[in-house]
Amino acid sequence: MEEATVFTFLRWIPALPLAGFLLNIFGARTETAGHGKAARVHWIACLAPFGSFLVALWAFAKLLALEPEARRLTDTVFTWISSGDFSAALRFSMDPLSAVMTLVVTGVGFLIHVYSVGYMHGDRGYARYFAYLNLFMAMMLLLVLGDNLLLLFLGWEGVGLCSYFLIGFWYEDPEKAYAGLKAFVVNRIGDFGFLLGIFLLFWTLGQHGIWTIDFSVIRQHVHLLGPTVITAICLLLFMGAMGKSAQFPLYVWLPDAMAGPTPVSALIHAATMVTAGVYMVARMNFLYAASDFACQWVAWFGAFTALFAATIGICQNDIKKVLAYSTVSQLGYMFVGVGVGAYAAGIFHLMTHAFFKALLFLGAGSVMHAVGGETDIQKMGGLRSKMPWTFWTFVIATLAIAGFPPFSGFFSKDEILWMAFSSAHGSPALWAVLWVGAAVTSFYMFRLVFLTFFDKPRDHHLHEHAHESPAVMTVPLALLAVGAATAGFVGIPESWGLGHNLFETWLEPVFGKPHHGAHFSHATELLFVVLSVAAGAGGLLLAWIFYLRSKDLPVRAAQAFPALYRLLYNKYYVDEIYDFLFVRPIRTISEKVLWNLMDAGFVDNGLVNGTARFFQGAARALRRLQVGDVQSYGFAMILGVLAIVGFLLFK
Amino acid sequence: MTQQTLVLSVLLFAIGAVGFLVRRNAIVVLMSVELMLNACNLAFVAFSRQLADMTGHVYVFMIMTVAAAEAAVGLAIVVLIFRTRRAVNLDEINLMKG
Question: Are A146 and A152 in contact (CB under 8 A)?
Fold first, then answer.
């Protein structure tokens, strides 16, 4: 095991938000009984992640002071399971990878908490909201700081639970509650595969005498396992990632999850929870690196999802749905990154995505706030004059996601595209899919910007009342914009001649030296950079033509290809297909067979009532023994005597 | 000699048993009980004579005492029941429904 430094403050990183959760869920009324009570709620709720952020910074500083090979801090709280050869401890560990994740989660998380103070102002469930948000932070931090698969899975389930709570936050609306349920159920399907993967890993290692679920120990002994087993484990674990990180075919919950409050969409479904799958693959990189097939699988699923979701995004009219599909698509990019072995690139995109996607969602929330909750972009327009801060930060985020230099998304996306082309597991085909996806991404994002902020307002009533959001909401936007704009500079590729790729070097202790496409020249690499920017520019140009210059073009295009338009608008009918294939049969079986036949029929009627009926019948028969009639008793006695005498006579 | 006495004893016992089970009048039922008891007495005496042992006779004494006491108590109960229910027919003094 690599040497590790003990740092007992690590536990405070997840513990502070957990404390915030407990205080708010038990200590505060769920109704805001006036400003005083609300203030206490949000002070507790915001200080908790801020405290975690400070401790994370401290830990980060400590890591920096260590030698690269020794960059690992641990904090063992207690031994949780101890059974023969096997033991699992509640141990937090921070290495460069979890440091990146922790800083992103606590930093962006804190900003979103602050934003929520403005967004959720006056909501009846104010305290409940912040309690759940804090619980989510605690669970997510447990996920990224856990030193073994058990803690990772615990955090994994925990964030799924909080996602359910928060999506269905306004549970009085049945549709919103159902959306929460859908998220949880779809996640569960993925978790099934995930658990099987964990069990398989545990069991097969155990056959070699190694009983463990600690990452470091698994890493040491992974060479003991056969290739088929490793591939199986990787694919099963990826099933969990498909569910949690909304990849095809388990992405369907994410667009529905937009039913939750917008800051929730920003935090959980953009910056943090959905990235857990990517983190998991990165964490288990030693496993994936041992299976070519699994790498290809992950990369192609990611690429397919990236393009698939992007195409759906171009026809959606709900501002949050566009962003939801965008998230699914960008997660696909991250998986391509970790799939082709460019783990650092995948995590880099995770980080930049956290900034610009959270910014996009919070900006959308700001817009929704201004237009009284409306989400249909067809009713918006011309908002840039009314909300400058929101507008400019949104534009920065859009430029980042579309991959324009010098914004962060450019560096991370470009790295992934290059690695998709040049690495051993990559291929030109893979690159092509991602490149088209980048163009489509740029198109639908600028479509969003143009329809929302530019042009003349389409609904004047909405436009009248539109106003910029309060500072508590715009300051986080601004801070995130700084991140979205500058975060890319830590990952400038080496081939640009400006020194090492800092981000990649930082993650080397976890991922090993990166396998760059050594047989490609710098010129080729630069060519690809140009191509990436061209894709982004192409999307922007097309969006400008369609939505600002010749505004009748979208309608004419839809009329020229009605079937295609319907297909895209209805999200390829995937939800309807699932409903037909899975939901309806399960519902019917549940109701007709399991409920009517087995539960009501067999258990209720057969077992419970049946027992009662049996005893009733038995009692009716036995009752005749006690009639209070002495002559009957006498008769019974004589019968008894005759029986005994007969027995004695004839034995 | 013994055998005939025993046959008589059994017959008396049977008559007493049947009377106990079948008759409806409470006093007749008590009479049947007495009959059964005395049938047992007869059997005891028969065996005692055959074995030339006084033990049987002594038993008869005991049984007679008990029978007398029990008859007294039983008849007292019948009298008390008659006072409230004005009937000695067993069917009419049965409160149970089953």
Answer: yes
User: Which of B90, B96, B98 lies at the smallest CB-CB distance from A631?
Assistant: B90
Amino acid letter for position A60: F
Residue A553 has pLDDT above 90, yes or no: no
Domain boundaries, chain B: 2-93
In this prediction, residue A84 has a pLDDT band, given cuts at 50, 70 and 90, of: confident
The answer to whether A303 and A420 are in contact (CB under 8 A) is yes
Quote the ipTM score. Answer: 0.85
Indicate yes or no: CB of A628 within 8 angstroms of CB of B21. no
| Three-state secondary structure of A609-647 | HHHHHHHHHHHHHHHHHCCCCHHHHHHHHHHHHHHHHHH
Secondary structure of residue A74 in the 3-state scheme: strand
Q: What spatial distance separates the first Cα and last Cα of chain B, rounded to whole Å?
A: 48
Are A463 and A383 within 8 A, CB to CB?
yes
What's the pLDDT tens digit per position in A495-530?
777 777 888 888 888 888 766 656 777 788 888 899
Q: A364-374 in b/e burial notation, b at 16+ Cβ within 10 A? A: bbbbbbbbeeb
Contact A347, A446 (CB under 8 A): no
Helix axes A149-167, A174-207, angle to 10 degrees: 170
Q: Which two tokens stand for residue A598?
A: 């087995």
Q: What count of CB pairs under 8 Å joins A to B?
A: 26
- CB-CB neighbors (< 8 A) of A624 in chain B: 98
Alpha-carbon span A302 to A329, nearest angstrom = 8
Contact indicator for A435, A531 with CB cutoff of 8 Å: yes
Sites in chain B below the pLDDT cut of 70: 96-98
Amino acid at A622: L
Q: What angle do CA A67, A96, A91 make, to 5 degrees?
A: 100
Per-residue pLDDT at A640 exceeds 50: yes
Cβ of residue B21 closer than 8 Å to a chain A Cβ = yes
Is residue A457 reached through a cis peptide bond, with omega within 30 degrees of 0 on the bond before it?
A: no
What are the boundaries of each domain within chain A? Answer: 1-147, 188-289, 291-569, 573-650
Q: What is the pLDDT of residues A98-142, one digit of tens each?
A: 999 999 999 999 999 999 998 988 888 888 899 999 999 999 999
C-alpha gyration radius of chain A? 30
Q: Do A627 and B98 touch (CB under 8 A)?
A: yes
Report chain A's mean pLDDT, rounded to a whole number.
Answer: 88
**pLDDT tens digits, residue range A580-608?**
999 888 888 888 877 777 777 788 888 88
The distance of A633 to chain B (nearest Cα, Å) reads: 9
Contact list, B94 vs chain A (CB under 8 Å): 627-629
**How is residue A520 annotated by DSSP?**
S
Tell me the CATH number for domain B2-93.
1.10.287.3510
Smallest CA-to-CA distance from A312 within A396, A238, A254 is with A254
**Contact across the interface for A629 and B17, Cβ inside 8 Å:** no
Residue A515's identity, in one-letter code, is H
Which pLDDT band holds residue A1 (cuts at 50, 70, 90)?
Answer: very low
For A305-331, the three-class secondary structure string (H helix, E strand, C coil) is: HHHHHHHHHCCCCEHHHHHHHHHHHHH
